Amino acid sequence: MKKFARIALILLTALLLLSLVGCSSSRYADGTYTASLAEFEKSGWKDFVELTIKDGKIAAINWDSVYQDDSIPIKKKQYSKSGLYGMLAAGAVGEWYDQATAAEQFVLENGIDALGVDSEGYTDAVTGCTVHVNTFEKLVRECLAQAEK
After folding, report:
1. 29: which of 3, 69, 133, 146 is 20 to 30 A away, CA to CA?
2. pLDDT digits 0-9 by tens, 104-137
3. Helix or strand or coil: residue 65?
């Protein structure tokens, strides 16, 4: 009987230790992290990402862009929503803000590794997203690197 009790105690201790290891901290610290391109692109826009980690997981992502001068005083999502960016008029599958939002939602649901950016900067993983996402991926990864414990 003592032998059985000792084995049971060892097993319970082992299970407790395993559960503590499994429930220990996540890879990411909670908070809001921001990353942006160092310079404006040839188009005049500079992308940035704001990423929020809650309970160790990505809880929110905002991918947007600012213009290089005051000729466009609002961010790219708002500019696009207003119809001034004109992607639909040029035959795109959606305005920039729709495509950016689709990419954000995809990463929230599937993680950044599932984005699968090709050598030209596109992804086939996100339905309705035909814009370059390589900068988005880069900036999300920079935010995640900041959040690593």
Report:
1. 133
2. 999 999 999 999 999 999 999 999 899 999 999 9
3. strand
